Amino acid sequence: MTRTRILTGVAATLALMAAGCSGGGEDDGPVELTFWHGYSEADGDVLEEIVADFNASQDDITINTELKTWASIDDTLLTALSAGEGPGLVAMPAERLPVYASKGAFASLDDFYADESSNTANLVPGAVAMEEVEGEKFGVPSGFVPLAVYYNTALFDAAGVTEFPQTWDEWVSASKQLTVDEDGDGTPEQYGVVLPDHATVANGLWPSLFYGNGGDIVDGGTAVIDSPENAETLEFWSSAINADQISPTGIDGIGADELFSGGKAAMTVGGPWMASIAAENEIDYAIAPLPAGPAAQAASAIGISMAVTVDTSDAEQAAAEEFLAYFLNEENSVKWSLGSGWPPLRTDIPADAVAENPTVAALTEISATGRPLLPGVVNSVDVLTAIDELTQRAVAGEDVATLLAEAQAEIQTALDD
Amino acid sequence: MSADHVPVRRYRPPAPLGGRRRATGSQSGRNAKALLFLTPALIILGLFVVWPMISALRLSFTDASGFGREEWVGLENYVKVFTDSDVFDAVTNTALYTVLFTPTAVIAALGLALLLNSPHMPFRSFFRTALFVPFTISFAVAAFAWSYLIDPQVGLLNYWLRGMGVQMGNVLEDPQLAMPAVAFVAVWKLFGFYFVIFLAGLQDIPSSLYEAARIDGAGPWARLRRITLPLLSNTMAFVLIFATIAALQTFDQIYVMTGGGPYGHTQTVVMEIYESGFRKLDIGFASALSYVLLIATLILSLVQFVFFGRREKDLS
Question: What is the pTM of this model?
Fold first, then answer.
């Protein structure tokens, strides 16, 4: 008896585990599609609205959104897809798309782009460049915005800086004017600008500075970081940071946000999220493009991509594409832009359509200066690590020529890998 | 006739220590029952430990990414493990971490166990509990808490030190100090466990040995060297092996506190496995590196086991 009972227990456990492992069956109702995204602020509300409108607009497709953090999307997508439990549609930072695409995680969207009704014809070219891997498109942009300077207008007034700097030299001299070391201990209490030297936003800031002086990182699959232009850029900024103390060192993007929101830095470089951070901390701010370098006015852009995963059936892929086309239509493009604070993804949307949101209007004006970050580079992890090491050690005062040669070798290895 | 014989034939002298046949019967029954009770645990272990291990072994010979196509690549991943410069750096960092963590944690645990084993120590129970508490909290929580404590802008520790005229700076961004910092957090978090094991080991040593030694005129140092440490060698082996394994597998607090930085100075082997697997989606290579780490850990544990086993044999 006891043995029978135990056996029954074991069998029940096994049955439960088996049930837990198997996925749900498909039924004949509307095509259901799960959509993972990380839009958690006002942008999330607008996205939910667009999805709800889409679901209500027809009876064949239901999109179910699942909000996760951007980091957890990256951490769980691999395991979810390999277990066959992945989402049908996923949004992720654009520089992460190539590695997933190159491993076969996403469906090709070339046919979708070729279709006139996909609303992709007028997308910002830089944004589309971030969706391409070896000439094939695997995603649709949901965000593309060049880095810009967010500055504290109260601190500008207090220091008597009336004009926003237009060139690097003006930028440095304004920063010096805004740097305050009250007690004279050599550590300013207020910095003119905060230039992070590694991680997050620094990964976009330093490429922007390189572009400004005519330099680049990767060109057509070859590392080109070891150039005289980039050496000049690093020396210029390292000297401004160390000798003139216009910015603290050893700061990452999050630290930079904290300094700016605490009123301890007059300028910071960032994306649309800085607008809400500044507002939360009751800081009067304005937005300006990155001052032009000697060679160009350019800024690295931050991109978010949406991709259709290989876990989808043909019907599901068609459903996902229908949603993407809906998301990109003119009305939703304006709605998404105004609600999220990111500039419109379509070049055919007139500036006055988004004029009611001053952040969007300011960012739309500089949208054309945005350059995609490492488009099509599969191993962006190692390339960005090499840039991190380069900028951090250059700012710490190490020899720029040696550092550039090392970074060049590392990036080339990463590209060849 | 036969009736006369039957009782004789049936007679069997009782086996020593009870009936043998009965004993065998109930033993196998008990084994079967034990096995049945173990079945759920064995199934879970099989599904979540053994099966993944076998899968990982297979994956380590492929170029798997976790989805889509995968191809057999033979020993390519293993060759890369032994030739890749990032792996070499990660191994160097892990060795440094192990050297920083293991002796510190073990010596701190042993010292405090000796101190708190003394019956003359006031508030013994309080201190014992207090030292064990960090072990019960999650590693991620401990890492977040310490990141805030030592933060150069908002950290309390920095604030107090500054009051005393000491500038700590941004420890986690300093290539020389980041590794000691993450190792320190692990010592703080884990040594409570080793401390309790040492305490248990100390309480196993009969007090009569100490009394006899005291009568023979042995001082505290001699008693520690001649009685305590030799009789603790089993415990020591256990703690050292555990601490070394913990050091070789370190991940949590590094992931939270430095993410492997500043520029790779805290990138350990497990961080490298994570990055290869989940950032570069190179599951095949990550599996191969995991297997190499497993074998290295086994060898190191075995060496320690043999070393301490021999010492104990010498002593007995």
Answer: 0.82
